[in-house]
Specification:
The chain is built from 3 helices and 5 strands, in the order βααββββα. The chain is of the alpha+beta class.
């Protein structure tokens, strides 16, 4: 089984509503940052993928369960793992956890690989696919 990529996030004032609770849409930003940082850790920068490989990744679908709120100044762990891989898409199982293990958010995010010029589905380059799928074996 693949292990889980984790990215730390701190909740800042700007992330919260008047009650000091993270505004619901900001969780999507946290999820996005974790996926981007995972790619970066594997040696893939989004801007270089666009320029050199001619691809971009775009979110196609998100399912999210808000289980408990995150609050101002919480130190969180945003987790990601590959749940499914298609020729031109990846489905991530993601969680946001308040250590030592309180699950706040559970999400499934499907990301499509697109040709940057045509914005049509494109095959995920083999090196990216291989590194993501086998990153933590």
């Amino acid at each position: 089984m693949l292990s889980i990529f984790e990215w730390p996030v701190r909740v800042y004032y700007e992330d919260t509503d008047a009650g000091g609770v993270v505004y619901y849409a900001n969780y999507l930003k946290y999820l996005e940052r974790a996926r981007t940082e995972w790619l970066r850790k594997l040696g893939f920068e989004q801007d270089l993928l666009m320029r050199e490989s001619g691809i971009v990744f775009a979110v196609r679908r998100v399912e999210i369960d808000y289980l408990l709120p995150a609050r101002l100044d919480d130190a969180l762990s945003v987790q990601a793992e590959i749940a499914a891989a298609g020729r031109a898409s990846l489905t991530f199982a993601q969680r946001i956890v308040r250590p030592p293990g309180t699950e706040l958010i559970r999400a499934t995010v499907k990301v499509a690989c697109l040709d940057r010029e045509k914005f049509r589905p494109a095959a995920i380059p083999p090196l990216i696919r291989e590194k993501l799928i086998h990153a933590h074996e």
